[in-house]
Amino acid sequence: xxxxxxxxxxxxxxxxxxxxxxxxxxxxxxxxxxxxxxxxxxxxxxxxxxxxxxxxxxxxxxxxxxxxxxxxxxxxxxxxxxxxxxxxxxxxxxxxxxxxxxxxxxxxxxxxxxxxxxxxxxxxxxxxxxxxxxxxxxxxxxxxxxxxxxxxxxxxxxxxxxxxxxxxxxxxxxxxxxxxxxxxxxxxxxxxxxxxxxxxxxxxxxxxxxxxxxxxxxxxxxxxxxxxxxxxxxxxxxxxxxxxxxxxxxxxxxxxxxxxxxxxxxxxxxxxxxxxxxxxxxxxxxxxxxxxxxxxxxxxxxxxxxxxxxxxxxxxxxxxxxxxxxxxxxxxxxxxxxxxxxxxxxxxxxxxxxxxxxxxxxxxxxxxxxxxxxxxxxxxxxxx
Length: 384
Prior knowledge:
The protein is of the alpha+beta class. The protein has seven helices and 24 strands. The chain has helices at residues 33-39, 44-55, 124-130, 137-145, 151-154, 343-349, 354-372; strands spanning 20-26, 68-74, 79-85, 91-95, 101-105, 110-120, 159-170, 173-187, 190-195, 203-208, 211-217, 224-227, 230-233, 240-243, 246-249, 255-257, 262-269, 275-281, 285-292, 304-305, 310-313, 324-331, 334-336, 378-383. The strands form five sheets. Strands 12, 15, 17, 18, 19, 20, 22 and 23 form an eight-stranded antiparallel sheet that branches. Helix 1 packs across helix 2. The longest helix has 19 residues, at 354-372. It is globular.
């Protein structure tokens, strides 16, 4: 008869993990994190610890409807983890162990290339809307071509606009704003094309009839033009006054780039401008970048910079209603419209490589035709 083996006290038995419950829901209007965590069954002590842990990585005052909270706990209500999902697919997790730890999970997005074609009958905005393309591209086109093309007078109807753009996605969710990479527009027998670089120095090139016309380095990549040059009602003081530059609204900390080669002439504070960097481009032209939150370590007055070099970070210093870059161009000390002045374009063009620029145009045309000709004008191009 076989003998029954009895495990000794020293024999290690497998660890049995207790069953876990998973609770999740979106934050509703007017709710706080504490309200949601209380509904999930967390004690006041645990709720306070979670708020401190998550608040160290994310400003909880920015919570809004659509953000979600996920709580994983044991059947007796002891929390194992709490995750807060916010914008751009970012998730902040508080993990309960021997001590409470926090981690930030940022998903790697897929970059999707899309193409579209629109017939213009009245305006760029209307044409983009009817073609179900992002209306914000009208601002990008006006920024690039506004000093070259008079859209009100020269666009008479019947023109065709072709665009190529890319956007970042995590699953079905779009992350951030779509970015134009190529535009083609024929007006009055002239073909205007713009190629935006996907990466690097963020210098856009404008072509007319296949020839390089000008080079433009945008001060902030992917930002929204929130205020143009000219008289306006001041957003803080409420009176009508001259707005001596243009404003780009975007997240705090976004890199700010020099728009043309030059020499740093000033770094410091200037009253309502807040933290400022100024760059001299020759003897008569200067660019000013204001409301900065920071400047690169080592950036110094007298240092030469190239178009596209990072010279600061977007902030809200000085008199500002929120994070933005106030960008000015001054000629002989007088403000001029940054979107129409040609001096910076000429400075940037002096550094341009025409052969490389024409190659970029050929590649952009080919990619546009490839996407417009496909049944689904969308292809996954890369993954970070």
